[in-house]
Design brief:
- By secondary structure, this protein is an alpha/beta fold.
- The protein folds into 2 domains: about 180 residues, Flavin prenyltransferase-like (Rossmann fold, 3-Layer(aba) Sandwich), CATH 3.40.50; about 190 residues, Rossmann fold.
- The protein is about 30% helix and about 25% strand.
- The protein has 15 helices and 21 strands.
- It has an 8-stranded mixed β-sheet, with helices on both faces.
- Helix 2 packs across helix 9, helix 5 crosses helix 8 and helix 10 packs across helix 15.
- The longest helix has 15 residues.
- The two termini are about 15 Å apart.
């Protein structure tokens, strides 16, 4: 099993962030971002420009964070009157959301004429900015030069997104949603242990049609597979997610392919398996499908109905049996004898690593408890949120890859 220090390093937790807010209508989203940080147990020190206070009051952020809000370079809350230095000391990072065109220009040229721009120059921690501006302002050559310059200086750019803007226009320049920024900030803390690797993940159920309105499926939400795709992308991998029917949103940075049936999932996987380094088969693929698919709805009758079924293709075993197969990871949801049946499945399918869990504890839930099975035995992991667990599993996979 991977060294515990390696596994737990999969996610360096946030303890304190500095949230910079500049002037713009998107400042209201910063309030939600502050709330998300606080909900995650992160201490938030908010620094606002004068323009930002015209859109959202400092009292709003103070109420959300439980901490004083800094707005003025010349009115210090620090004991040595050095807010522009002291505020970022001990912080994990600074994130500016929204970051206006004017503020990005000041960063690009090293200006320090207010508290926020000054502390950004004096910081010792990473800086991330989420641009927010009118579509023409964003596409302006000067703005693009400034964005490139700060990116070259090592400042992370989050977004912007595209869509309807407060000015009534539509296009690039819209600030990312608070949840997207929060997720990107968290992802920035994850070591890129899969950088340069290609990962293929399957997730969700499949649906095997009986007629136009009925079918055979599994009770899978897809949450674990989507969490693993997200965790792999956070770790720097090029991720393709083959998803069965589910309404879950696509994780940032992940290429998604939607399928319905086991046959469609197999086709999508087989077309890409030779080009990936890691294949993680999380999907709850139907084991059987109807031999006959009726063109029209089958009418209900009083007598019993007999449905002839045939096995579907074993996607995981087929990929694992290929010459030069990728590193294959299987999942097993069992209702009893989890470790024994999971190990039987691992050996039968000839995969290096399998993750086993009790089906009744995991289906549809936001958390899970799993056991990793490999050639060295069974390794139980504590119950955790599925995303936390996914990050741990990605660290375990990375530690086992040849030439890591």
């Amino acid at each position: 099993m991977a060294d515990p220090a390696t596994a737990t390093a999969a996610h360096a937790p946030l303890t304190r962030v500095v949230l910079g807010v500049t002037g713009g209508i998107a400042a209201y989203k910063a309030a939600e971002l502050a709330r998300l940080f606080v909900k995650a147990g992160v201490a938030v020190d908010v620094v606002m420009t004068g323009a930002a206070t015209r859109f959202v009051t400092p009292m709003t952020f103070q109420a959300l964070t439980g901490r004083p809000v800094a707005t003025d370079l010349w009115t210090s809350g620090a004991s040595n009157a050095m807010d522009h230095i002291e505020i970022t000391r001990g912080a994990d990072l600074v994130v500016v959301a929204p970051a206006s065109a004017d503020f990005i220009a000041r960063l690009a040229h090293g200006r320090a004429d207010d508290l926020l721009s000054t502390l950004c120059l004096a910081r010792e921690c990473p800086l991330l900015v989420a641009p927010a501006m009118n579509v023409q302002m964003w596409s302006n050559a000067a703005t693009q030069r400034n964005v490139k310059r700060i990116a070259d200086d090592g400042i992370a750019i989050l977004g912007p997104g595209s869509g309807d803007q407060a000015c009534g226009e539509t296009g690039d320049g819209r600030m990312l949603e608070a949840q997207e920024i929060f997720d990107a900030v968290v992802a920035s803390r994850v070591p890129r242990v899969l950088a340069g690797r290609s990962v293929l993940v399957t997730a969700g159920p499949t649906f095997e049609a009986i007629d136009p309105v009925r079918g055979i499926t599994n009770a899978s939400s897809g949450k674990m597979g989507f969490a693993l795709a997200r965790a792999a992308a956070e770790a720097g991998a090029d991720v393709t997610l083959v998803a069965g029917p589910t309404s879950l949103p696509t994780p940032a940075g992940v290429d998604r392919i939607d399928v319905v049936s086991a046959a469609e999932m197999a086709d999508a996987v087989f077309a890409r398996a030779d080009r990936c380094d890691v294949f993680v088969a999380v999907a709850a693929v139907a084991d059987y499908r109807p031999v006959q698919v009726h063109a029209h709805k089958v009418k209900k009758r009083a007598e019993p109905m007999t449905l002839a079924l045939e096995p579907t293709v074993d996607i995981l075993a087929s990929v694992a049996a290929r010459p030069n197969a990728p590193f294959c990871v299987g999942f097993a949801a069992e209702s009893q004898d989890v470790v024994k049946l999971g190990e039987d499945k691992r050996r039968r399918k000839k995969v290096a690593m399998l993750v086993a869990n009790r089906a009744q504890d995991a289906l549809g839930a936001d958390d899970n408890q799993v056991t990793i099975l490999d050639d060295s035995g069974a390794h139980a992991l504590p119950r955790a949120d599925k995303l936390v667990l996914a990050r741990r599993l990605i660290a375990e996979i990375a530690a086992r890859l040849p030439g890591r």
